[in-house]
Structure formats: C-alpha cells, structure tokens
From TrEMBL, chains A, B:
NCBIfam families: mgtE. This is Magnesium transporter MgtE. One of its GO terms (cellular component) is plasma membrane. It is found in: Cell membrane; Membrane. InterPro entries: CBS_dom, CBS_dom_sf, Mg_transptr_MgtE_intracell_dom, MgtE_N_sf, MgtE_transporter, SLC41_membr_dom, SLC41_membr_dom_sf. The chain crosses the membrane at residues 294-314, 320-347, 368-391, 397-421, 433-456. Residues 210-269 form the CBS domain. GO terms for molecular function: magnesium ion transmembrane transporter activity; metal ion binding. It comes from Yoonia rhodophyticola. Keywords: CBS domain, Cell membrane, Magnesium, Membrane, Metal-binding, Transmembrane, Transmembrane helix, Transport.
C-alpha cells in the first residue's frame, strides 16, 4: 500500500468489478498466463468470491486453463452450492493436493454435504491419521460442536511451568496453523483451564501455568449445538472454546473466527427465513431458486384465499357500497405491516435470548399498547381521509375503529405467534410471517367489512 | 461443571428464568445479601443481560441495594438505551471506579452516546493518559475505525529477534489485557508486518521476528468505516486488524471479538430495517417504540392509499362484478410476497458483496425468470380456483394473467430498487420494502382490475 490515505474511499476488502471483468476477458481469450497473473496476488477468499461472481460456463473454462490450480483454502471459502460443481471438475490428484493441508474442521466443512463418491474421494486423499479425525467428526450429529470443532490444539499438563511450555512448543511437535491458548489438562486428560499465549510470553520461565490461567473457564460438550457455542463465544468474548467428550477430556476447540462464520450464517438464515426465501443464494440455479421460493408463495396463496373467503362473506355489503372495496386493503395492509414489525422484534429477541419466560408477559402487554397508540393515531388520520374522500363520517368511524382493532391484534399476534412456535420447537423465523399476516388480513377485512355491515347499511 | 454430559440439554450460555425470578424476589424483599449471593458468580455479560430483563423500577432498586456495585465490564455489556439510566444512578466515585480498568475502546463505546454531562463525568474519572487516548478516539468520525480501535497494542521494531521480544514482554511494560499478535514497525513507526504469538513461542530466541511474519499483512486507515473493517476481518479470517494514520504509523487495532459485535449489530440492523422497525429493542420504553415504528407505518399508509386510488379508478368495474373485490387482494398479496423475497436476497447480497456491478444484469434477468416461472404456476392454480369458485373461465384467465405480470414485476422491482437505492447512497435495507410493495400493489390491482374491465365487462 503505497498511498494508504487513498484507502478511505476504497473498499476495505474484496475485489473490484474491473478485476472480475479482466479475469472474464482473459478466460474468454483462453489466456492462461493472464489468468495466473490476475489471480496469483489474491487471497483465497477473494478468489472464491470471484468464482461465485462469474457464471457456470466461465467458471469451468477458468478452472480448466488455470495453471496454479484450485487449492484447499479456496474450496473452503467457496459457497456450498458451488463446491460440488468445482470438485467434480478436479482430477483426483488435484483434489488430493488441495485438501491435504487443510485443518480437520475445514475438511469436515468441505465434505459434509458432498455426495458420497466425492466425499470418499476427498477422504482418500488424506493421510490415514487425518482421515480418522475427519471420520470421527463426521460421526457427530450435524450442527454439533463435535462435527465442527478443530481437533488440532495445544494442550499441556497443568503442573507445567512457562519454561516447560516454551521448550515443548520449540520442540519438533506439530502445531496448529493458528492457536491462541494452551489448554491445561490433568493426568486423565480432563480440561482444567487455559492460558493465553500473551501471559505465557510475559512471565518468567519458572512461573507455573496454573497461576496464569484465565479466571473463567468454560467447556462445551461435543453434542452441544455449534450455533449455541458460537453465541456463547460472542457473549463471553472468548477466543477459543474448548470442546470436551463425556469424560470431560478435551477433544477439540471451536475458534472465534469459525464462530463468527456460524453467527453470520445464523443471522443470514433468519433474514432469509423471515422473508420466506429459505436457503437462497445468488449463485443457485434459476430452477433451484424457483423451487426454494415456491413453498412460501404457496402458503401465502392459501392465506390470501382465506382472507378472500372473509371478503366473500360481505359481497352484498360491498355491492351496496363499493367504497368499501377501495378502502379495505388499507386496513389489512397496515395490520400486516404492524404485525411484521412486532414479529421481527420478537423473532430476533428470541434468538438473542432477550425475550424469555421471565419477561414474555411484559413484552406482550407492551406490544399491544404500542399497537393501540399507533392504531389510535392512524385511526384518526384514516377517519379524516375517509370523510374527505367519500364524504361519509360514519365510514370514517368504521375504518378508524377497524384500524385500532387490527393494530392491537397485530401487536399481540406478532409476539404470541413466534413465542408459541418456539415453545413447540418450530423455528419462529420460518413460520411466523405466514401466521401473523393471515391473522391481520382476516381480522382487518372482518372488522372493517363487519362494522360497515352493522353501522353503514 | 461436575456433570458435563448434562450440558447437552442445557443452554450453552446465559441465565435461567428461575435466576431472574430469584433476583427479582430478593430485590422485592430488599435482601442485599441474597442479591450479592446470586449475582456474584455471574459473568458481567450475564449480569448486564439480567438487568435488561427486569423492569425499570426493579433495576433501580437492585442497583440501590447492591453492595458489590456496578463495574465497568457490566456497563460495557449493557444495552445502549439502558446505559444513561444506569449511569445516572451512580455516584461520581462509583462511576470512576467502574470505568478505570476498561480498555480505551470500551470507554469510547460507553461514552460516545451519553449526554455531555455524563460523558464529562466519565472522562474525569480516567487517568490523564487514558483520557487523552479516549478524547483522541472521540475526535474521529462516528463509525470509523479510529473511533472504535483499541489503542492498547504490542509493537516491536522489525529488526528484533524472538529473544528480544520475549525479554521485552517479560519486562515491566504495561500490556493489553488480551493480545494475540506483535505488530512489527520500522524506525519511523510505520507498520510493516505482524507475528502471531504462537510462532514466537515455537521458535528459538535467535530467530528474527521478520522471518516469522504472516504472509498477508493488511492495514486499515483510521477513517475507514469500522463495519467494513469488521467485514474484512471476517472475510480474511484475521484476529487483529492494524489501524494506521495518514503516515501509515500504527495507532491501534480492531480485534476480532469487537468485529464480531459490529457484524452482529449490522445484521441485526438490516433485519430490523427490512421490517421497518428502525433501531428497536425490547428494553425501549413504550413511547420510544411507538415513535420508532410510526414512520414506516405512515409510509405504508401512503402507499396503501396510492393502491386504493388505483382501485378507485375501477369502482364501476367492481360495482359490475363484486367477485373482483373478493379476488383482487390475492394478486397484490402474492406480488408483495414475491417482491419481498427478491428484495431480501438482493439487500443481503449487496451487504455481503455478492451482488455487484459485475453480475447485476445477470441477477436481474434471473429474478425476472424466477418470477415468470412461479407466476405461471400460480396463474394456473388461481385460474382454476377462479373458475371453480365463481364459475367464470374468463375470470380465471384475468387473475392468471395478472398474477404472471405481477410476479415478474415483483422480481424486477425487488432487485432493481435496492440496487438503485444503494447507488444513490441510501441504505437499501431501510427503504426498499416500501417502494417494492407500492409497485407490486399498484401493478397487482391495476393489472387485475384493468384486464377485468377490458375482458369481462
């Protein structure tokens, strides 16, 4: 970086559109040297990102002419839905070269969703020792800490001193690529504490490691959900989370950089589920995307038809006063929006443990009250609009009262639905939206048209 | 942990509803010893979480009778909207005690949004040296790396050896509480590389530090957006991101645990903005929440009225065939949902840099195609429903064609709107939803009622 002051306007990371264009052109020309020259200086994460941005045909052409070839770090960084495609294209020897230097957890991430043939091919490329470790990890349940932990770690007997630890690290022992703690174990390999490398480096050789151990030491069981472990790492500002087996023996660690990825995925999943998109990503094929989005649209069709059935109950009322057909979507739409607001706050608060049994009633009361206050304000606004537009004070009253009812119901449904779904073991991010908008549509149409039938005709 | 196998069913972190209840009871009884006994074993993050779960009156009572008293780590962990309230209740001496041991970046986070009197009170509690550092950080723009960096770091001349570094760390120099790298600087304090502590510990004393430096070394400018730095840390799996001034001198670091918090906040913000909730949190007061949600509901009211105006154009058509009023919300609702799907994927893809100038046209085509395919499927379904329900084949055709049109438009608008907003410098998460549903509502009603007017009457 010759002129760092320019960085202010530059992106902090990633690749430019221009670079993507240059690589594309080089691939079209079949210019292998140009491709090498462009890709060589890039970080594996950036190369993976570039592969995701070009289309399938260009990706195949690029990999075919690329001399340096795919390496394991790039494969690890690649979006899951592209890995199979790319691995298919690699010769067994290339694949073996690529995966050999990866840490055990990266190999597991790489192979866990591959089809059996490909998984077998990758496993065969590993040394016998690494292979056992990876197969052991794959034997733990999906999404468990055991499945995703890194088995490479540094442990030391708890009676060692700083000097003994340094001599051990300087010996020809194989160390993980990155490590930030030494985990202390008793003679039965039970984890009893950990020491940061900073404290080891800053104390005399004679200091016992136990004297330097961190105050708070938590371990996580191999069967624990890995997302929970990631949340715990974030909550307690840990760098390394030790994972133990049934006998409390240390068997691996979840590191903070992996935890960060799990949390990102979790937040992403919540966002996409709230919008009814499932596991969508831009690099999916059109038909895959169509299929992912279909179920939520189908659910929405059913709920929309339910709402229509409510409208159909009042066909005569509408025939008597067509203005009702003009105004009725407003009540439903405001309820839908208010419900989505309450439900989004509730879904996130459940995910971050801010909404619990200890405060659920207070939150429900609060949301109903917020709905009531906003409902009254918008009732007045819409009442006035109704009077001005259609010259009927009673129509103004009807739409106003329906608005208040629907916004209070929206606040209640937006909180109660996700809480109930969560207690039933259903992911509230996935299913709440459909339920809540069904409630607000039905209540909105029913209240507005019902009151109109009672008071206007 | 006597029986870690029980952990599988237990939460990986956090506090139980029962504990919250016990603390509440102890506070109600005014039993200071019981409060101390319950809170003493807890991690500061858990105490902060507990304070967020109880209501304002209980919080005040708790703090008043709590002997151990508030410490800085708890204040740092506390939700922003509660900090002012809690700090107000602390005597100046208590506050001084609480903040004295915090790292500079934690003090900055704590005070940056306090009102001036409270900020002054905290700053006065600091030692002169720390105060200068905090004031310097506060002089950088909000959301910049300079504002949020930790100034405590370990640097060493690039010509040092492992032995010199160890002797330096063992001397009586003041070290950061946590550090994982030593940053190498040239004689003009320009950052030239960094070394992990693990590599220092595992090499003989005579090894030059430069030989152990990491291959890839990136620095970030103090004015760089801190969220971008956090994304870069995640993207490149960094543990420490060095922050430099205009002369490339190292002035601080952003650490991965802080980056994790920034990324969480960013994802949270996107989720809440997509739902039109702004900065909402469960511990806000009812009136604050009402005010936060009001603007989006007001925008929605305007868009709903626009849609109603479209319906009003067709009052005569509806008067001629009331079935239209029954079916029209279905077309609008399906379009709104499909639009939300496309827009959510686009907003997240923009945030994660997966949607760029290099692939925007491909993505737009793709979304339109997905809309077309799903549109045709649902057109057939709804056509059949229309025929069965109302016995009119032509009505089935009208709703089917309107559905196809609206779902294609939803795919286009859902992608184009966020891309255009982003280019205009507006956060697409904040504003896209209103635009897209306005488009799908208007197009939905217009296509359905317009075709009905043309073909049915």
């Amino acid at each position: 970086m010759a002129e760092p002051q320019q960085d202010i306007d530059e992106e902090a990371f990633g690749i430019t559109d221009r670079l993507v264009g240059d690589v594309r052109d080089a691939v079209e020309r079949g210019d292998a040297d140009a491709v090498d020259g462009l890709l060589d200086p890039l970080h594996p994460a950036d190369i993976a990102h570039l592969l995701e941005q070009i289309d399938g045909r260009q990706r195949r052409d690029l990999i075919a002419i690329w001399n340096a070839g795919m390496d394991g770090d790039i494969l690890s960084e690649l979006a899951e839905n592209l890995r199979e495609e790319v691995i298919e294209q690699l010769a067994p020897a290339e694949l073996a070269d690529a995966v050999r230097d990866l840490e055990s957890d990266d190999v597991v991430d790489l192979v866990e969703y591959l089809d059996e043939d490909q998984q077998e091919a990758v496993l065969e490329a590993l040394d016998a020792g690494d292979r056992v470790v990876v197969e052991q990890a794959l034997s733990y349940p999906e999404e468990s800490a055991g499945r995703h932990m890194q088995s490479e770690l540094v442990r030391a007997p708890s009676h060692w001193t700083v000097g003994e630890a340094i001599d051990f690290l300087r010996s020809d022992v194989v160390l993980p690529e990155q490590f930030y703690h030494i985990i202390l174990v008793d003679p039965r390999l039970k984890a009893v504490g950990y020491v940061t490398l900073g404290r080891i480096l800053s104390h005399p050789r004679a200091t016992p490691l136990m004297d330097l151990a961190e105050d708070s030491f938590r371990t996580f069981h191999v069967a624990q959900d890995v997302e929970e472990v990631a949340q715990a790492i974030n909550h307690y500002h840990m760098i390394t989370a030790p994972v133990v087996d049934d006998d409390e023996r240390i068997v691996g660690v979840i590191t903070i950089d992996d935890a960060m990825v799990f949390l990102e995925e979790e937040a992403e999943e919540d966002i996409l589920r709230l919008a009814g998109v499932g596991e969508g990503s831009l690099s999916d094929r059109v038909l895959d995307t169509t299929r992912q989005r279909f179920p939520w649209l189908a659910v929405n069709l059913v709920t929309a038809i339910l709402a229509s059935l409510v409208i159909a109950l009042f066909e005569e009322t509408i025939a008597g006063l067509v203005a009702l057909a003009v105004l009725m979507p407003i009540v439903a739409s405001m309820g839908g929006n208010a419900g989505t607001q309450s439900l989004t706050v509730a879904v996130r608060a459940i995910a971050t443990r801010d909404l619990t049994g200890a405060n659920v009633w207070r939150v429900i009361r609060r949301e109903a009250l917020v709905g009531l206050i906003n409902g009254v304000i918008f009732a007045i606004v819409m009442g006035i609009v109704g009077v001005i537009w259609f010259g009927s004070p009673m129509l103004g009253v009807v739409i106003g009262v329906a608005m208040v009812i629907n916004l209070v119901v929206a606040g209640l449904a937006g909180t109660i639905v996700p809480v109930v779904l969560e207690r039933m073991g259903v992911d509230p991010a996935l299913a709440s939206g459909a339920f809540v908008t069904t409630v607000t549509d039905i209540v909105g149409f029913f209240a507005f048209l019902g009151l109109a039938a009672l008071w206007l005709l």
